[in-house]
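Handout, tutorial session.
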Amino acid sequence: MFESKFQEKNIVEKPACPFCTTPVEKPAEERSSTMPMGSCTCGAVFVCDVTGHNLGSAMVEGLLHACKGDSDKAWNLLPEEDYLERQVKHYDLETHSIIHSGAYQGRRIGGVLLFIRLQESDGENPRSKPGPTSVDSPRESRDMQEERARANLSKKDVEALVNSYDVEPLVAAAENDKRVLRSLKRLLYSPDDLQRLRAAEFIGRASRAIGRREPEAVSRLLQELFSSVTDTAASSWGAVDAIGEIIRCQPDLFSSSIRRLALLSQDPSLAADVLRALVRIGGARPDLLHVNAGALIRLLENPAPLLKGYAAMLVGLLKMGEARERLEALRENRSEIPVYDRGTIQKRTIAGIAQEALGRL
């Protein structure tokens, strides 16, 4: 049924490595992995996501495979700096073929081969090495050492600060070294939800410090984050949350990006993330949010608890009195959703969120 629509343009070819164009062997099951995997002669590894809907898990599996099971090394890698990632879509594991039409013999073909290749860099920060000190000016030497201590945080230092939710030292470091943002950005790919959301918040806070003297650097980061979301050949993970935090922390500079952020909700897989980001922005500057009231209120009847809950929060923040009746209907809803605030994730009921929203009207 599916293939008849594409019969004249159905092109089938064998998959090749996107880095070196060498044909690759069919991925195989491995005891240490839940997904079929393989490797290319150029050093790239690849993971097969049969459905194309589990790319997050595929990324985790691929990084671990590339690092030979060393999880500490895997989570210290930064996209584009320490490794490259590419996707080959419309892959059919059964025939080991790329079916460009997306359909073959009555089957929908939606598999993805996720390729990862490590860069040659060892990932060390050269500025983390101690520099020479002056014996002629001990006072100046101490000042320089304190400056370096603030500026030269390693990736592990940054991760430790995020894990302990210690914001101020990281912001102080960011004021002197914008590369802190890179170390934070890699944590947006963390499989741990709390670490990912904290990293997004820290990116917003660090960006505010950097933006005072180099707003163009933050603007570039914002563009990179948007690109990672809209580029189907990359994984976005915590990018939407980070976009929201940058806007929340620097609304005077980046409030014009709110509309672009809101448009991302047209992708159903991103809708909850976008709403969460808008809630964070609205908590600081509700006057900046100009949303379609009708569409937002309709989400209060959406069966997905996350969409319903975040929509209720937004309705309350924006004081939409016309939503009162629908909010009242949610006061008995005991479904729970995770809500991030000040470094913690708490479970909140839809009923409690609706009651709070009603109190704001």
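The second record follows below. Compare its token runs with those of the first.
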Amino acid sequence: MLVKRWAALFLFGVVLFGLAIAMAIAYAYRTWNVPEPITGFVSLVTLQFLPREVRFVLVLLLSLVAIGYGFWRLTSGVIGPVMANLPSKKGLANIVAEHRFGPERPSIKVVAIGGGTGLSTLLRGLKKHDLAITAIVTVADDGGSTGRIRSEFDIPAPGDIRSCLVALADDESLVGRLFQYRFDQEGSQLAGHSFGNLFITALTRVTGSFEQAVSETASVLAIRGRVLPSTLENVTLSATLVDGTTLRGESSIAKKHCAIKNVFLEPGHPSGYEPALSAILNADLIVLGPGSLYTSVLPNLHVAGITQALRWSPAPKVYVCNVATQPGET
């Protein structure tokens, strides 16, 4: 950290600026013909009626008082709140704002459950309002970049979580485009991979925890809300079609375009992620969808504890149906 040297340079610049102003005033006073009323006023303001030593002491004391009071106010207004909140995951701006204006007013707690493009689209709309948003996302996706990462690193699917994190990002411009960037150079081992998926995977390897990797990515993107996996287990989505055929893998189900009888997860009844269950129980409003009914919404309901939490939660439940027909699903 180079804070001290830049602070010293800033103070040095202020001193030089003050000297330059003093030199300019002295030069003007000695060389310009100033009318008598003005010179009398200047003499009064600059305390010319006092001995030079007394003037020096008064100005010195005044400057020390100003410096001391300003530093005290700076400490109490900025440094104090920061130190009082250590350790804290709050940003500096949030800490100072909360200190000056009080804690943020309680927001309506909205939980959105789903996955895919539908959920991320919903989140982009919700973040424009004063809401405490929690997205609970399926981790059963196994197509494209996500599928390759899951097979190589044995982690839950990062793809839908990445899209939801970007959707809730405070600024989606450059960082959002970076996380959604997909390598497309033919013949490259990175071809088809999303940078965001690789980022979450690398963080999982570094931290040793998919849960922490998602949390740290949320901090990097400064998201407005929370994005939680419905489970931390590496699950596979399977489906039984009306003709009796069984398909394994979310991508296989999506490609078949046949009527689905039911879906299930392997291994069966994976443990629900505790923060996700808690968010459902404490929600003021729960939204399911939009998105693919069988491959984005229902996989979350097959996680142990999710359905029970939905039943026990007193919050109104809203299902957002797709606006267009999706073959084999809705």
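Points raised in discussion: The chain has two domains: 38-104, 108-319.
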